Amino acid sequence: MPQAFDFRTIPFDPARVDTSGKDVGRRVYWKLYATENLLRVIIHSVLKAQIGADWWQAAVASDIQREAQRQRTRFARRPWHGSAGSHDIYFTTLFQLNEILRANSNLFLPVIADVDAWIAKIEQIRLPRNIVGHMNWPSTTDRQRVDVIHADIHALATYLSQSGLPLSAP
After folding, report:
1. What is the pLDDT of residue 83?
2. pTM of this structure
3. How buried is residue 82: exposed, middle or buried, by Cβ count under 10 Å (0-12/13-18/19+)?
4. How many other CB atoms are found less than 10 A from the CB of residue 34?
5. Which residues neighbour 101 within 8 Å (Cβ) at sequence distance 6 or greater?
6. Which residue among 34, 35, 107, 113 is least enclosed by CB atoms within 10 Å?
7. Position 14 pLDDT exceeds 60
8. CA dist., res. 33 & res. 97, Å (int)
9. pLDDT tens across 117-157, in order?
């Protein structure tokens, strides 16, 4: 594959738009997808273990619950589209996931000793995630940040699993 450049910074050619998109998808997007969804699994698994199956009602702020329900309703009105998922956590943003983590940090501390560092890490990828999610070109620093946090969350999931926490997708 030819080296990709941000198509907006070089003479325009429609093929360069394709090359840019393929590069961002191949190198960045999938890592953000995996990171965000692993975070959902970790939040779900820890809170389910700490609170029980009804953790969503007990641990999530009412404004986040309302917004998730609003998003769920939007999807339900258009059943010909795919759904975000079967659990309300799939209808949350990265910011909201971080807020759930922050609000329940006392419940995460017994299994994730550096929960505050994780809150900060997630905050560091919010902007790069939005850049990529809105089909823009991430900087080299953003790509490196995503690479590191993706590797770190995989290591965290492995650690939690090996520590005896059953990880499960909601």
Report:
1. 85
2. 0.94
3. exposed
4. 14
5. 39, 43, 108, 115, 118, 119, 122
6. 113
7. yes
8. 14
9. 999 999 999 999 999 999 899 999 999 999 999 999 999 99
